[in-house]
Amino acid sequence: MVMTQTVRRMIGVSFGLMLAITPSAFAQTDVTFTKDVAQILQRSCQGCHRTGQMAPMSLVTYDEVRPWARAIRAKVAERSMPPWHIDKTIG
C-alpha cells in the first residue's frame, strides 16, 4: 500500500514536470491578418466585398479592412453580416 502511494506520487510529479517543461500545444499565439482573418473574409465576405461587386467597399487587403474593423465586428455581432442568403447559418 505504501509502495503504491509512493509510485503514484512519483508518477504525478513526473507528469507535472513534463507539462511544465514542454511547450503547450494550447499556447495562445498572436492573431495575424494573413494567417487568421483573411481566410474568414475570403469565405464569408469577399463574394460581395471586392472590386466590381455589389458591396460598397472592398475587404480584400489589410489596408482595405482595417478602417472598417469596428463596423465589421458590430455587423457580425448583430448577425446582419454576412447576409442570410450568402451564409445559410444566418437568418
Automatic annotation (TrEMBL):
What is the organism of origin for this protein?
marine metagenome
| Name of the molecule in the record | Cytochrome c domain-containing protein
